[in-house]
Design brief:
By secondary structure, this protein is an alpha+beta fold. It has five helices and eleven strands.
Length: about 190
Amino acid sequence: MKTVKNETEIEFQEKKSKFIGYIKPINNKKEAEDFIKKIKKQHPNATHNCSVYSVSEKGQEYFKVDDDGEPSGTSGKPMGEILTYMGVTNLVIVATRYFGGIKLGAGGLIRNYAKTAKLAIQKSEIVDYVLTKRYVLDFSYEKSEEIDTVLRNEKIEIEKKEFSERVTYVVSLSENKVEIMEGINDIILFEY
């Protein structure tokens, strides 16, 4: 199974219409829906915020397209076809369009929304999908340098940090990364 490596964005113009493509790798349907809401909130004045996501969650496949007011089948569907064509899943794409005053026609919309999806996928980079789960790492301040070094070396991003009596991080880990973290003394690790 293939997915994309990074959350990223692309942008281009076509006949004065501005297209912005946002892409994010995901593990579940909720992440997809939350990302779509976030982008819509970021662009409340956009003409359209069309979207597509494909995700396999607990053995169930979810695939959803949304034309967001564009003529039926001219935005979400062509983006979905690009996902299928490029063989990627577990990702969400939002294509934000600001109308520039020149109508593109159905063919122009289809081409440009497909282009938005394809450029976003290419920029994000296709990789093998590895299932990750969110974990809480809890440790003493003395362990901070060691933990930070391991996370940096393993390219594990910290989603959330909290400093009180002890240090708490929220991270997403694959099975093999969980084993690495469990190998560190004096760390409390549990699923988030």
